């Protein structure tokens, strides 16, 4: 491409401080160093996690920073030691590294790389590259990375273990959602909850994660998929993806959990909270069958030891993973 080994000037959305709008700026993106890859971002989506760091009550915020972690792009150049990627490859940046060599990556029981044990929080602990420096500069100042990806930039630099290769014919504007929303919602249904054929499911929230959960329940053979959202305009898409019942709490004269319990003669088999609200979590637990209480919260992360994980909750609190 003629830019290998050179600084690239491009546009990026920078958060200069918390609780303020992002600013479109010209930035300089340095060439990749050892085991790094520079990517041209073709498509990026907005995840609510990107907004967390801007919230005035968020602890541990760092600025200035280029946010973004749900994207797809094309490899522009690679640094020394990179063997799995080459210029022109279509890729998805990963906020959770995958070295592919440690015992955790090689185990079928987890997908959390051993590199994560060094992280207390993937948001803050991946704000610089492994050598402790940034590849972004704006107005003479270094700019922090975000979650090891920083996709709100036309070009970004990531570690070669924070990257997944795509098929050459992949539609980047669609597959960018694999970087977070789809894998989170669909994966929670298939891998965590293991929804069974013929079961009944309730899904709270119809953003990217919630709609992906709908698809997961449909693929799993659920017989009834009840979706809940305060924006009824989302119901058309939800039904197209497999939802069987759509409820807007604003249109009801009783608590949503009571309505669902009546609809299902006692409660649902599986419930998915894709909003991130404590009140929703409590209400969701109350609508599950008393005999096999299983719920999955997939919108917020719980920081346990060193990794972000969605959790499973049983009536007796025996299973917390």
UniProtKB/TrEMBL annotation:
<dbReference type="Pfam" id="PF08240">
    <property type="entry name" value="ADH_N"/>
</dbReference>
<dbReference type="InterPro" id="IPR013149">
    <property type="entry name" value="ADH-like_C"/>
</dbReference>
<keyword id="KW-0862">Zinc</keyword>
<dbReference type="InterPro" id="IPR002328">
    <property type="entry name" value="ADH_Zn_CS"/>
</dbReference>
<keyword id="KW-0560">Oxidoreductase</keyword>
<feature type="domain" description="Alcohol dehydrogenase-like N-terminal">
    <location>
        <begin position="34"/>
        <end position="167"/>
    </location>
</feature>
<keyword id="KW-0963">Cytoplasm</keyword>
<dbReference type="InterPro" id="IPR013154">
    <property type="entry name" value="ADH-like_N"/>
</dbReference>
<dbReference type="GO" id="GO:0046294">
    <property type="term" value="P:formaldehyde catabolic process"/>
</dbReference>
<dbReference type="GO" id="GO:0008270">
    <property type="term" value="F:zinc ion binding"/>
</dbReference>
<dbReference type="InterPro" id="IPR011032">
    <property type="entry name" value="GroES-like_sf"/>
</dbReference>
<feature type="domain" description="Alcohol dehydrogenase-like C-terminal">
    <location>
        <begin position="208"/>
        <end position="278"/>
    </location>
</feature>
<dbReference type="InterPro" id="IPR036291">
    <property type="entry name" value="NAD(P)-bd_dom_sf"/>
</dbReference>
<dbReference type="GO" id="GO:0005829">
    <property type="term" value="C:cytosol"/>
</dbReference>
<keyword id="KW-0520">NAD</keyword>
<dbReference type="Pfam" id="PF00107">
    <property type="entry name" value="ADH_zinc_N"/>
</dbReference>
<keyword id="KW-0479">Metal-binding</keyword>
<dbReference type="GO" id="GO:0051903">
    <property type="term" value="F:S-(hydroxymethyl)glutathione dehydrogenase [NAD(P)+] activity"/>
</dbReference>
<comment type="similarity">
    <text>Belongs to the zinc-containing alcohol dehydrogenase family. Class-II subfamily.</text>
</comment>
<protein>
    <submittedName>
        <fullName>All-trans-retinol dehydrogenase [NAD(+)] ADH4 isoform X2</fullName>
    </submittedName>
</protein>
